[in-house]
Amino acid sequence: MDKIGQYFKISLRNLKRKKLRSWLTMIGIFVSIATIFVLISLSLGLDASIKEQFRKLGSDKFFIDPKGQLAGPGTGGAVTFTERDIRTIEKVSGVKGLSYFVIGSAKIEKDNQVRYANVVGIPLDRTNLWAETGFIDAEFGKILRKGDSGKIDIGSQYYHNDVFEDPVMVGDKISIQGINFKVKSNLKTLGNPPDDKIIYMSVKDFRETFPDKGEDIDQITVQVNEGADINRIVEKVKKKLDDARDVDDDSRDYRISTPEELLATIGNVLNIIAGFLLGVAGISLLVGGIGITNTMYTSVLERRKEIGILKSVGAKNSDVLAIFTIEAGLLGLVGGIIGVVIGIIFSKGLEFIAVNMLAASILQVSIPLYLIVGVLVFSFLVGCFSGLWPSWQAVKVSPVDALRYE
Amino acid sequence: MNLRLIVLASKNIRNRGIRSWLTMIGIFIGVAAVVALISMGQGLQAAVTGQFAALDPDKLIVTNVDTGFGPPGSTAVKKLNEHDKELIESVNGVDVVVQRLIRTVSFEYNDKTDFKYVANIPTEKEAIEVIYDALNLELEKGRLLDENDRRKVILGHNYLSDDFGKSIRVGKKVIIQGEEFEVIGFLKKTSTFILNGIIIMPDEDLREILNIGDEFDILVVQVKDRNELPDIKDILEKKIRKDRDLDEGEDDFSIQTPEQSIQTINTILDTINLVIVGIAAISLLVGGIGITNTMYTSVLERIKEIGIMKSVGAKNSDILTLFLAESALLGLVGGIIGVIIGLALAYAAASGISTAFGGLEFSISLNVPFLIFAALFSVFVGTISGVFPALQASKLNPVDALRS
Predict the structure, then answer these.
(1) Fewer Cβ atoms within 10 Å of its own Cβ: the N or the C terminal residue of chain B?
(2) pLDDT-above-70 percentage for chain B
(3) Same domain flag for B279 and B395
(4) How far apart are CA B30 and CA B106, in angstroms?
(5) Contact present, A380 and A59 (Cβ < 8 Å)
(6) Average pLDDT of the residues of chain B
(7) Quick one: three-class SS letters along B197-260?
(8) Quick one: three-class SS letters along A325-359?
């Protein structure tokens, strides 16, 4: 143990002797480590905030979507649900409750300014599952409840990001498709701007505002009884709905997804993107590592005499190997420390911009301790690894030749 | 003189053997990464815009304002209708106006159901020709729809595979939204995903089975003289505004050339590309610092040599040029190797992607000016990286240098 401490001391002294060169070598490492650090902390943060949204929604719910949508819900699919499907699902034992929504595109108007937005109709005579779980929550005013008519909840963009020239507040009036509605609440931000621009109204008002949509229902959310096995209930609902819609495995025209499935899909996509970006960023670390190899190799060439002396006074090959490898590792480690510091500053800066200027609070960064420690250990190892070959060159130095050198 | 300088510089680089190679590896990895990613980015852009740009530039596309992300017109607040069509047709210089619908329908064959995209073919002969011409539809088997066909469909190339357990052939009946249709043709495989999986049916049939009233997703406007395109666009905008009683700036519709309508996608792709290439360019920065380091070490090692050169008459500028030439040469060789490796990587990746997504035309175009630029940029990086060490070398005092 004591020996290792000495190795570190010797290595550190050697690095200090060649200050400028050590710094130049470390710049290569810390630039790349900072990039990698920012990317990981961003993707961890994004992953966490998406999971948080699902967690809020609760793991006791699942979603039923029609198949054959052009893009998201409401993009002119061939299939929609009806009130009959709702009744079918409700009768399944183990189902605690359900909610659904209809979505439409609307022309909205305030103070003679015209905008276009998505409007979502939700049934107010049922429990508002989204409000109940706190998934949507009022920042000002009160969320729509049973009996409300001619009133709307509006997304956070209307207040915080000037959809109209002036912020829209509780009590203001907005005309939607030519019909006047009163704002009952400003919702808290969900974190992604398109969702934060949605307007919510009762299904009853929706039907009057969008007569073209008929009795269509675009998505159903089902809540299961406490303690019930969600997958079993999914199977039961699927069976009943198959019977009611007269479809089977080959012709099913809807899709049921549980939060876990959705999370897994989103997680996969995020991992692929993050993996790709990390791969690209990893290239610079490779180049930085080669920089360490180069510096160490130069150092071995310069210090042949010193190595010869070390060996002739009894240093073993393993000692020489350790001294040079640790020297390279220290280049990596110090580069890593600076990289992490820069990385933290940078990612916090990005978060600040995303949250305060773009209203995209979903873009959080997460900097867990294990990330910092992991990155530091990793950069030390990268350094050691880059130094292996030059260190081996040092080991191969024969003391007699080295002392005769020059 | 210049030639001798280069000979001298390259001899010095060769003298340092492995160390020069290590320095250049740093540069060529960086250059290779940037070249590969930019080439692939261009290929990706071509492949993605190819999905949307299956229309000639001599046509205008009219849509109403969308609120969501989906195919053009799919989330329009108010659909276009017959009135809009007639209005556009009445404008001088407009040749044909074609109504387009893109929807999804259930498609059943061999008792298996799936959901597919469907597009309409107009029922007037003139308009049909515009669409066939614009989409460049080519048949693999059977024939195209004409104005008299009803309850008949053409299918994309994907339907020729056995996805439905039994192969579909020309003349077979399929069930679309519960109604029977006869298959009269299959399209050739194209690089556009949507076209490969599409069902094409007569406009009237599509309206009937989906209960679509008087509405269109898109109106394609064919003009008589393509030089008049911008003027006609202006006239149309004014006419529609007047018809809908809108002030300028309140438009709830948009008129675009096909190029304009893919501009948003291009902007997104450009941004993504910029981020990725930016990250990759960091490795070039790191490689450049590697050159600085090598040159700096080299100056320290050659202090005596520099002293001798100066004492036999070399000027400061000679020393400066020599060292700059050395670092530029490191950049050049690194850059050339990098460009070659980067291209090889891009081609390999492109063929991998094309195989993985059968039918997607993902090709790398050999952009020679860009490649030359990349190599020159690498020389630039090398030179810049060498400035600081070279200045240091040129300022050495010969007396001190010889004494060291």
Answers:
(1) N
(2) 92
(3) yes
(4) 50
(5) no
(6) 82
(7) CEEEEEHHHHHHHHCCCCCECEEEEEECCHHHHHHHHHHHHHHHHHHHCCCCCCCCEEEECHHH
(8) HHHHHHHHHHHHHHHHHHHHHHHHHHHHHHHHHCC
Q: Given B67, B108, B290, which is nearest A291 (Cβ)?
A: B290
Highest mean pLDDT (candidates A75-84, A331-340, B352-361): A331-340
Q: Residue A70: which H helix or E strand, with range?
A: none
How near does any CA of chain A get to the CA of B127, in Å? 24
Residue written as token pair 């943060």: A45
**Residue B296: which of A24, A27, A287 has the nearest Cβ?**
A24
User: What digits encode the pLDDT tens for the residues A142-153?
Assistant: 888 888 889 999
**Residues A257, A63: contact at Cβ < 8 Å?**
yes
A146 touches chain B (CB under 8 A): no
Answer whether residue B216 is part of any domain.
no
* Closest Cβ opposite residue B282 in set A32, A76, A251: A32
Distance, in Å, from the CA atom of A256 to the CA atom of B116, rounded to the nearest integer, reads 19
Query: Which has more confidence, B219 or B58?
Result: B219
Residues whose CB is less than 8 angstroms from the CB of residue A172 and which lie 6 or more positions away in sequence, other chains included = A110, A182, A183
Quote the distance between the C-alpha of residue A17 and its chain's center: 44
Residues 6+ apart with CB under 8 A from B190: B136, B138, B157, B196, B359
Say whether both B13 and B37 belong to one domain.
Answer: yes
* Of residues B255, B261, B260, the one with CA closest to residue B60: B255
Residue B217 counted as domain residue: no
Using DSSP's 3-state secondary structure scheme, residue A252 falls into coil
* Contact yes or no for B105 and A78 at CB 8 A: yes
Q: How many residues does chain A have?
A: 406
Tell me whether residue A3 is exposed, middle or buried, using C-beta atoms within 10 angstroms of its C-beta: 0 to 12, 13 to 18, 19 or more.
exposed
- Same domain membership, residue B141 and residue B206: yes
Domain count, chain B: 3
Q: Which amino acid is at A39?
A: L
B282 and B151 belong to one structural domain: no
> How far is Cα B303 from Cα A385, in angstroms, rounded to an integer?
32
**CA B180 vs CA B156, B177, B205: distances in Å:** 18, 8, 11
Per DSSP, A81 falls in state B
Task: Return residues 240-259 of A near B (CB < 8 Å).
Answer: 247, 250-253
- β-strand partners of A257: A63
In a domain, B12, yes or no: yes
Query: What ipTM is given for this predicted complex?
Result: 0.72
Contacts of B74 in chain A (CB under 8 A): 70-71, 75-76
Query: Which residue, among A342, A338, A340, has the nearest Cα to A369 in the 3D structure?
Result: A340
Per-residue pLDDT tens digits for B286-302: 888 888 888 888 888 88
Q: Is A290 helix (H, G, I), strand (E, B) or coil?
A: helix
CA–CA separation, A309 vs A58, rounded Å?
A: 69
Same domain, B41 and B127: no
Q: Provide DSSP, A93-117.
A: TTEEEEEEEEEEEEEEEETTEEEEE
- In this structure, the answer to whether residues B181 and B272 fall within a common structural domain is no
Helix residue ranges per DSSP H, B302-312: 303-311
Instruction: Give dist(CA B45, CA B37) in Å, integer.
Output: 12
**pTM, full prediction:** 0.74
Judge contact between B55 and B61, C-beta under 8 A.
yes
Question: Are residue B250 and residue B267 in the same domain, yes or no?
Answer: no
Cα–Cα dist A30/A28, whole Å: 6
Q: CA–CA separation, A8 vs B336, rounded Å?
A: 40
Q: Do the chains contact at A295 and B293, CB–CB below 8 Å?
A: yes
Chain B hits for A250, CB-CB cut-off 8 Å, are: 111-113
Of A355 and B369, the one with more pLDDT: B369
For residue B39, give its domain range: 3-51+263-403
Q: Which amino acid is at B130?
A: V
Element (H, E) at A184: strand A179-187
